[in-house]
Design a protein that fits this description.
The complex is a heterodimer of chains A (153) and B (708). Chain A is α+β, with helices and mostly antiparallel strands and 153 residues long. Chain A folds into two domains: 74 residues, Beta-grasp domain (Ubiquitin-like (UB roll)); 65 residues, [2Fe-2S]-binding domain (DNA polymerase, domain 1). Chain A is 32% helix and 15% strand. Chain A has a five-stranded mixed sheet with strand order 2-1-5-3-4, sandwiched between helices. Chain A is globular. Chain A starts with a strand and ends with a helix. The relative contact order of chain A is 0.17. Chain B has 708 residues and is of the alpha+beta class. Chain B has three domains: 160 residues, Aldehyde oxidase/xanthine dehydrogenase, molybdopterin binding domain (Aldehyde Oxidoreductase, domain 4, 2-Layer Sandwich); 164 residues, Aldehyde Oxidoreductase, domain 4; 270 residues, Aldehyde oxidase/xanthine dehydrogenase, molybdopterin binding domain (Aldehyde Oxidoreductase, domain 4), CATH 3.30.365. Chain B has 18 helices and 26 strands. The chains are: A alpha+beta (153), B alpha+beta (708). The interface between A and B is large, with 57 and 60 residues.
Amino acid sequence: MSLVLHVNGESHDVAAEPETPLLYVLRNDLKLKGARYGCGLGQCGACTVIVDGKAVQSCDVPVSAVVGRSITTIEGIGTSDRLHPLQRAFIREQAAQCGYCVSGIIMSAKALLDANPKATDGEIRTALSGNLCRCGTHTRMLKAIRSVASGAE
Amino acid sequence: MSAAAAARKLPGSLETNRALDLWLSINADGTVTVRPGKVEIGQGILTALVQIVAEELDVAIERIRLVAAATTLSPNEGITSGSRSIQESGIALRFAAAEVRELLISRAAEKLGVSVEQLSVTDGVVSARTGGSVTYWELADDALLRRNATGEALPKTAAEYSLIGRAIERVDIPFKVKGDPVYVHDLDLPGMLHARVVRPAAPAMRLADVDWAEVQKMPGVVKVVRDGSFLCVVADREEQAIRASRRLSRLAQWQRAGALPASADPRYLLESQTEDEVISAKGEGAPANGLRTLSAEYSRPHIAHASLGPSCAVAECRDGRYTLWTHSQGIFPLRADLAVALDVPEADIAVLHMEGAGCYGHNGADDVACDAMLLARAVPGRPIRVQWMREDEFAWEPYGSPMVVRMQAALDAQGRIASWTHDLWSHGHSTRPGGKGGVNLLAAWHLAQPLKAARPGNPPLPAGGSHRNAIPLYEFPRQRVTNHLVREAPLRSSALRSLGAHANVFAIESFMDELALIVDADPVEFRLRHLKDTRARAVIEKVAQMAAWRPKEQGDAEHGRGLGFARYKNLGCYIAVIVEVSIAESVRVERAWSAVDVGQVINPDGVINQIEGGIVQTISWTLKERVGYDSEGVTTLNWHDYPILTFNEVPDIDVVLIDRPELPPLGAGEGTQGPTAAAIGNACYNAMKVRLRDMPFTRERLISALVA
C-alpha cells in the first residue's frame, strides 16, 4: 500500500501497511535514523519527532495517522553548516554521553520553544517529562535548552 | 629487539600489544590514524585518547582519525570496563605516541643533518633551530612503525602539556546532535533482513512445541528459525518481524523446568548456600569488654542496566565466514565465545564495534550478537539485523546482583572505632563472555545441544567484584571482612557499573554515620579521625567546604544533608559527595556537591560529565530502581514497571576536580555510585532521624520507616 508523507519539507511515497509505526517508516524506508527505538510504547521519547508542531512519539503512531501532515525529524532542523540553535547549544554544553536519547530530547525541546520561545525551567522540565535519559546528562541538557530559551544562544 | 626490551614490562595495554603500527599510523595525507582497542560506550573515552595522542605527537586534534575497534585490526584490550580505559589504553597510547614521535624526530635529524636537540615540533612540522624543516607526513613510511614498542621513549612531563588537562569538546557529540546514524542500531546494509527473538516467559522455561505454519505465511516472513528453545523469526521489514514474533510467541508452548524465589527480597541470599572467604583480617583477639557496639544490615535489590536503546546487532554469513557488527564491550572475548557457540574458528569471525546506547556494564549486547550470528548461519548471504524489544532487554539482560551487607563495630572510650566487621552476601558480579569452562551467551544455553555457562564469579581482589570496596579505606585496629559468595543465581547477574562497590560503600558509609551519631561526632570529622590517606582527606574536606557543611548540622523533618566517600576499588579515583534531600511524599535529592581526585585530569569536562551522570544515575538506583519478579518470571518489562529519575527530579550538581598533574590519571566512570547512595541515606537520616538501610528508598519504604 502506498502512502504519501510530508517529511522535512519533502513528499515521499511510502509502501507500508497503514498500521506500521511511523518510526519504522522513518528509519527503514526514508533512512532517517535520528529517531530511535527505545521502547515501542511511547514511554521513553527516544523516537520523538514533530508532527504539525507537536512533539509526537513516532513508535506509537501508525503511519496512516500522519498522512498529509507535516512531519519534522532531527535531520530536518539544521544542516552541518547551519545547525539549529538547540543543536549548537547541546554541543556547547557537551550535553550528551551516549547520545541515544539526544535527538528525541532536542525535538521535544524544539516543539516547546517553537510554541513558547521564552519557556521557563519548569516548563522545559515538564515538556521533557516524556523523555528519558539513562546516562544522567539531564542538567547539561536543561542548561543548553535554557540558553536557547533565554536568547543567549 | 634486544632481550632487555623484550623483558621490560610495558605500560598499560602496550604490554600485551607491542607492535607500534597496531596502535598508530602516520599518513602521507597529513593525518594520524589511531586504533584503540577500547570502545566508546558513551563515556567519552575516545576523545580523551585523541587528546593523549595529539599531545604526545604534537599534532592538532583535527588530524587524528579514530578507527573503531575491530578484531581484524585493533589491539586486543579485552573488555572496556572497570574505569580502566585511561590506565590501560590511554597509557599505552601515550607511550606509543611518545615513541613514534622519537622515531620521527630522529629520522628528521638525519634528513636535516642536525642533532635531535636542535629540533622542535609544531603540528607535525619538525623544524631545526638553524633553519630547515620537514613534516611527519614526509618522514613516515610503513617501515618506520613496523617495530615493537620499547617503552623507553619518555612521554612529556606535566609542565610540557598544552592539550592534556583542557576541556576539549567531545569528537562524537556533533554527530549525535544531528541524528547521524552512529549506532549499530542505525546500520542499514543492502539486502538486510530484520529479525526478532521469541524468548520464554521465564528463565527456566523450555520450548515444548510450536507450530509455526501460519507464521510462515505472514507477510514478509522469510524464515522461522528454531534450535531447541531458541526461537526467532526473520522478515523483510522490521514491523513484519515484530508482528510475526508476537504471533509466534502466542503459539509457542513452554514447559517449566524450575522456579524463581517467590519474593524479590534480596534476603534470600542469607538462606542460600555460600562460599565464604575472609578477605581482610587485622588485629588479634576480641576488643575489650564494655565497649559500645552497633550492628546493622543493609541491602540492595536486583538492578537493571536499563540501556535506553535495547540491544541490537547485525551479522552476515558469506561462504562460511562471518561479519558481526556489535556494541559489545569486549569484541575479542565475545568472538572467543561465539566461536565455541557456532563451532567455527575464531579466524572466520570478524567482529566490528559500533556504538550502542550507554550500557553501564554487561547488558544484552553480547547476547543479541549471538542471536544475530545464529540467524546469519540460518539465513546465509544476507545481513540480519536483530533488535531486542524493550521487554527482551528488561527480562533477559544480566542484572546487577542483589546484595546484603551486615556491619558490626565497637567504639572505644575516645570515640574511635576499635573493631569492625563487614559481611557481604552476593552473587558473582561477572558472567561476561570470555569466562573459563563455558560460554556466556544466552542463546547458546537454549540450543537443542545446549552449551554450559562458565562458572559465575568475581574479578579478583584488589579490584574485586562483589567484594569491591568491601575492605575499608579507614584505619581500624581490628577488622574482619568476609565475602559470602552465592554462586548459584536464580536470575543471571553480571557486571553493573561499580559492581559490589555500590552496596559495600553504601553500607560502610551509612554505618560510619550511625557510629558517629553514637559518639556525638560530626560525620566529616568522624571520617577524618579514621583516615590517614591525604588524598582521601582532601576530597572530604573539599566537599564539606563546597557545601558549606556545618559541623554536626541537623536537618529538619523536611530537609537534610548527608555525606558519602570512597576511593573506587581502593586504588582508583577518590570521590566525596554531599547531597541535600527533601522529604515529602517521597525522597527527593535537591542538590549535590562532589569533590573528585582522579590524579592527572586528561579532559576536565569529560570527568565532570561522568561524575554528574554517575550521581544522577545513582540517585535513580537508590530511590527508585528494583527489578521485580515472582515465581512465574520477571515482572519488570517496561519503563512503567521500572521508573527511573526524570527531568523533573534531577538536582543541580556542583563538581570540583582536585587536579594532580604529577600523578597517574585514573578512571572516573564508576566512582560516584557508592558515595552517592550513602550520602542519600545519611541525608534522609539527617532530616527524619530514621535510617533507611534497604534500597531503593521508595515511597512505601519511606512510609513504613516513618511509622515503625
